[in-house]
Structures are given as C-alpha cells and as structure tokens.
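Morning!

As promised:
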Amino acid sequence: MVSQEPLNKTPLHALHLELGARMVPFAGYDMPVQYPMGVLKEHLHTREKAGLFDVSHMGQVYLKPRSGNLADAAIALEKLVPVDIAGLKPGRQRYAFFTNDNGGILDDLMVANRGDHLLVIVNAACKDADLAHMKAYLSDLCDVEVHFEDKALLALQGPKAEDVLAPLCPAVADMKFMDVRACEVLGATCVISRSGYTGEDGFEISVPAEKADELARALLSHADCEPIGLGARDSLRLEAGLCLYGNDIDETTTPVEAALVWGMQKARRPGGAREGGFPGAEIVFKHLSGGVERVRVGLKAKGRAPVRPPAKLYADDKGETDIGRVTSGGFGPTVGVPVAMGYVVSSHAETGTTLYAEVRGKYLPVTIENTPLSNPPINAEREHYCHDHQIYRRTRMAEH
Amino acid sequence: MTIKFTEEHEWLNIEDGIATVGITAHAAEQLGDLVFVELPDVGATFEKNDDAATVESVKAASDVFCPLAGEITEVNQAITDNPELVNAEPMEGGWFFKLKLANPADADALMDEAAYKEFIA
C-alpha cells in the first residue's frame, strides 16, 4: 500500500531519534523497529530485565454510558463482542474481539472497566474503522470519546518491570495481572494496567501526551530498563503465542478457528446468561458445537531455518498433501529455534504432530506445540499470562 | 591480493583467480543480528547475480548474490553453525564462500574500497 500522506508521529518520536532508533512506517506512523542494541538483544533483555515500548499508535477510546450506569455501556459493547463485559468488575481488564456477520474478527482489543466508563484499546491499523464501528452501534447508549491524540501509551515489560515502575508509582506493586487503576505518576494522572503483549509480567501506561516524553525518560533512567522496538515486540509476542491482527486473525477467521475460545466467557456461549447477541453468533456457535475445518496452532521448527508467512504446510515431506499455511513466523531468541503460528486442517492439529513447511523449495519439519512456545516459562510471573490459556485447555478437555 | 566490492554490499578478496566472498560490515549492520545462514554446495556454479546464499535476521530473509560468475570451491561452515559470526567479523571470520572465477578480469569492473565507501556514504 503506497500512501502519499505524511506519517504520523507519536509523542515519543523525538526521543526515538535521539536514542538512535531505526524508524519504519507502521500503520501510518513513523515507528522504531529497533534501537542500536538490535532486535535479538532487545528481545532477550525484555525477558531478563525490562523493556520499554512506545505503543502510542494504538487507539484509546472511552465508552461513557449516557445513563451514568456502567452496565448500560457494558451491555451495549456486548452487541459487538462475544465477551463477558457486563461481568467485568471495576478495576479489571479483559481481552476481546469485534466480530463481523460471518463470525470473522474485525479487530482484537482490550476492554477495562474504569468504574464510570469502559476503556477500549484497539490496534493502530484498525482504529479508524473500529471507531466508526463503535460510533455506529453504541452512540445511542454511550458517548464514544476518542483519545488518539491526547494520550500516549507506553508498555513496560519484563520481570523487572515492577522494580522500574514502583519508584515512580508505588501502588503498582499491589496490582495483579489484568488489574487497571488510575495513578499519579510524575504529577500526571495515568491509567495503568498490569498486562502486555510479550508473555512477561509488565504494565501498559496510558499517559497524557505532553507527559509521555518525561515519563519515558524517567523509566529509561533505571539501569534495568532499555528501549525496545517493534522488531522485538513481534518476536516476543510470537514466542508467547499471542496473535497479531492482520496476520494470525482477520475478517476470515472465527474465534473458534483462531483458538480464541478461551476469550469467550460462559455467559456469552450457548446456554449462558447472555448467550449470543453479537455479530456472526450463529456461525461462531456452529463452529463451537460442530467443530472447524481448520484451526490456529503454534509451531516449532526442528532445524534452524526460520519459517515465515505465507509458507505452505504439508502432511508429508514431498509437498503432496497441502494442509495449511503459516501466518506468523521467525526466529525465537529465547527458545533458540524458529517459531511460527499457522492454520492447519483440524485432522492434523494435535499437539506433537510433525508437519512440513515449504521454505525455498525444501520441506522442513515443524512440530505443533502448545502456546506459549517459549515453554517452560522463563519466570514465575509468566504464569499470570498463561492463566487464560490454561482455562482454555481445560475447557477444551471438558468438551471432548 | 585485491579487495573489491559490489553494489549489493558483498566483498571479494581475490587471490590467484579465487575470490573469498562475504558481506560488508555495512550490510551486516543493516541486516541486524543474523540467526540463520544457508550456503551453496561446493561444486555449484553460478552466473553473476544468481542467488548463492540466504541469510535471515530475526526479522527477515535476504538473498546473497553471487558477485561474479564462477564455481564454489569452499564454504564457511562456521557461519552456518554460528550465524552471529557474520555480524561480529563480517570481513574476516564471517566470510561465506570461495569462488573460482570464470573470468578473473571481470573483477576489474567492481568497486575498490574507496569507491564503495563513497557508494554507501
């Protein structure tokens, strides 16, 4: 896609240049893909200590109920997502996805209950479409308040994240995974969640745009904290088994095919208190009960050659039986082998199955693995992240 | 012994019609940390600008072109075992392969070090 529009800049743009980042266009923004440390070391540093990511290109939206009753906003948003929003307690956050009439995924997002409003965080590339979508369906009950420009978003990730942030905001030490609260940091009101996109412990900090540079510098002044670019963000999330919208999930993949059933709570499933009522529910429920032809799986290569999208996957080593496609892939610096994700026919989706990926005319063996791909967890905090996935695995076992 | 450079950021150290070939420090830096290298077979013959090797960084795969026509006489197994050697010593221990030049005189048309430095400036 060639665009004549000048690239947008986040409030940290000048800081990225000052830190020597290599900048690339991403979702209409001029973003740091790596700093002088390099992708490999940035990845490992985040797993060992703490990394700071600028994710201000993502879209922050507040949904404010006209009635003043948050339940009205929650019920309204449930019309767009197969997720239990009404059951989300104040100060808690949850993963969600917008579905379309075919049960495909329009975007994935985070939803937080902030007491008097819902905070919604969506992907940069989808944010204008998401905003239009929410305005079209929610405006009768909610004010849809846009914070694309006035709020920056910093992600602080890694086992030392709490040590880095606590001196500026002691309250974060009490937060559990997926807690969200407003905190005073350097004299500004920030909204902090204990979550992220790396599989590590960490925080995402929504900060007033004019305060973002000062906060980033304060965090980076800690000896354990380094700036991390989009390159390592991608390899970290891939090892963690987390989907990248546009690669691993899109309008053609249902949550069941995408192995995101764990994100659809009981209340919204068949027999639940508020079952269905989201776009494409009929198709999603059919997939839930009748199974799917293809499903997203995690993959590890047996050799050293990275397997990248859109590599074809075969059941045999001669390229005769085509059974799927790789949707994300690359080298996993922490696991030390190439890792990937892709869709395969359900008959070949059992964990441990060996498949063959076509790379430059060769058929390289890859094994289906449970996510996160960086097992065993590098640190105890990782268990926070794994929690949702374990619920999913238990649910699957119960269903079979 | 003559060191030559290509616009595709390869270097050739030519001695008695055999070129030791690698990628330049500039190329290694642009690619970032390498995690995988695939080298040609000994005995393979290539025309100028054929794909002779593949390198992958954490982010992307890139081809390494054969800078001149010739036959592969030796490959550097050390960089397939340890791809980071290319980043650490691109002009020395990180060499890729040795190429018996089909027409050694073709090397005259390549850049010398001063010209390459100007090319990447």
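The longest strand of chain B covers residues 51-57.

Hope this helps with the figure draft.
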